[in-house]
Amino acid sequence: MAAFSFKALENSGRLRKGVIEGESARNVRNQLRAQGLKPVEVKPAVVKREDGLRWQIFKSYLTPTELTLFSRQLSTLIQAGMPLDDALIAVAQQSSKARAKGLVLQLRTRVREGFPLASALADYPKVFNDMYRAMVSAGEQAGFLGAVLEQLADYGEERQYTQQKLKMAMVYPIILVFVAVVVISLLMIFVVPELVGLFRHTDTELPVLTKLLIQCSDFLSTYWIYCLVLSVGVIVGLKLLFKRPSVLSRWHSVLLRLPLVADFVTAVESARFASTLSILVTSGVPLLDGLRIAGQVLGNRTLRDASAEVAKAVQEGASLHRALAQSNRFPPIMVHMVASGEQSGQLEVMLSRSSQNQERELEMKLGTLTSLFEPLMVLVMAVIVGAIVMAVLLPIIQMNDLVA
């Protein structure tokens, strides 16, 4: 059976949408009529194009939360002894979103056709990445699919927690900068012209600071719309420019040479690399395959290339810790912990501890940067506002001196 999306009218005239399994569109219509619904539209959730590729009427993606929930539910049902076919049906029934339900039903269809779950997942590479599919394949071959799915769910939750911490750490500085720019712009466009308008036609020579303030205010008052358009254009242009791989690679290389930024990027990426490799090795994925997949999850292209060189060195016979040390891109503490893991035969355990160590270090660095950024931003705002106040007060003081 295949999955079909439908639109049907209830007796009250309300339109209902959803996904249902059936042998054909006619069979689905009969099912809907048996439920007291009047079919309006029934079509396959997935159809074959002429070139043989699949096209989903559902967007072929799940949010990280939905993917983690899928892994957790399927793991629980499989470990409870439920057959994979029935477990997929149960997960689909529990889903409240048509997109996710349709996707799970399509996976069940492929499984019922005799394909392994990993092969079914390969039809949706944008949903289930290489790491996910490799771990599922290893779990199926070893006979502990439920445990592997549980590890994937734990991994997804940890990744979401780490990303949430990073986002929350960045929200306050971004809001602070935005408010500062808006406040200063409003002062320069609306408030300052009214205050300095008194001094424009005086015969006395205005202070340099006041002249500079008047010029800036006139420029922003006259050309603010152009400045806004230019700012948006620069942002859009940079986004388009960074879509070019060569430009993005150069930028990532520059980030790894900047003070503070380099440590931050290295900590984020090395923690991601170590945690991914750890869960892959724990699931039974060969080390070389694990290195290739773990390298693909890195966002920085320079570090991704370095991980590819590490995999090449290991393939040629070098130990993992020696290959990491030769790349000179990963933290020394990570190299030492990997060496310890290789010697003790607990590589996956030491990789996991290395990831946790990097995440703790990253959290401390974020806390330090945030605590330093707040007073620094307040100081910058105080200097700018103080300069504006002085630019307004200096002519008044000068005029009082002349009168005296």
TrEMBL record:
Pfam family, one: T2SSF
Molecular function as annotated in GO: metal ion binding
Domain annotation Type II secretion system protein GspF: ranges: 70-193, 273-395
One of the GO BP terms on file: protein secretion by the type II secretion system
Listed transmembrane segments: 169-192, 223-242, 376-397
Bilayer topology annotation: Multi-pass membrane protein
InterPro entries found in the cross-reference section: GspF/PilC (IPR003004), T2SS_GspF (IPR011850), T2SS_GspF/T4SS_PilC_CS (IPR001992), T2SS_GspF_dom (IPR018076), T2SS_GspF_sf (IPR042094)
UniProt keyword list: Calcium, Cell inner membrane, Cell membrane, Membrane, Metal-binding, Protein transport, Transmembrane, Transmembrane helix, Transport
GO cellular component: plasma membrane; type II protein secretion system complex
Main subcellular localisation: membrane
Subcellular localization: Cell inner membrane
NCBIfam families linked to this entry: GspF
Family that this chain belongs to: Belongs to the GSP F family.
Function: Component of the type II secretion system inner membrane complex required for the energy-dependent secretion of extracellular factors such as proteases and toxins from the periplasm.
Descriptive protein name: General secretion pathway protein F
Name of the encoding gene: gspF
